[in-house]
Design brief:
By secondary structure, this protein is an alpha/beta fold. The chain has one domain: Aldolase class I (TIM Barrel, Alpha-Beta Barrel). Helices cover 19% and strands 23% of the residues. The strands form two sheets. The protein has an eight-stranded parallel beta barrel with strand order 1-2-3-4-5-6-7-8. A two-stranded antiparallel ribbon has the order 9-10. A hairpin with a 2-residue loop joins strand 9 and strand 10. The longest helix has 10 residues. It is globular and about 40 Å long. It starts with a strand and ends with a helix.
Length: 197
Amino acid sequence: MIKVCGMREADNIREAEALDIDLMGFIFWPKSKRYVSRIPDYLPTKVKRVGVFVDEDIEVVREKAREYQLDYIQLHGSESAEYASQLAEWPLIKAFNIATADDFTQTEAYVGVVSYFLFDTKGKSVGGNGEKFDWDVLAAYNGQTPFLLSGGIGPDDAEKLRHFYHPQCIGIDLNSRFEITPGLKDIKQLKQFIQAL
């Protein structure tokens, strides 16, 4: 699965949707440079819509999920498993910042509550840092919940990804390394990367 996250502009959304991708992410965290403050003039119909939230009031999450007709909700903050269970109406993706093998212990409480995990890089911001973590540490993850690999994946990583394997890795998350400016993706670069992948 390929997820392109941090989308905002109608024409850019249309062009990205025409690529061979599965999920498109919209960020509803006001502190993000990719924050979606209003409904774009076009929203994807052929790929699944993912709303990204960071420690948001649960009623706001529900409201946005219905307003944008989201297919998935991604929790990218320190939301508890109990919080996540209150959003069972939608399939959930729970993000975790990973640096060492010990960081996988935090996933245990969410088993059976969320559909997928997303493993991102520990950085200054909660996401979109454009930095990779050491993928070798993923060998320590032996859970049964499938995950998306995130964190600084860029145009030069296609070959590395072709040789990467983990039985629970079901996809990748692309964002800041494919941008012209925050919230605006370089479609040509994305297309070349996906073809190479």
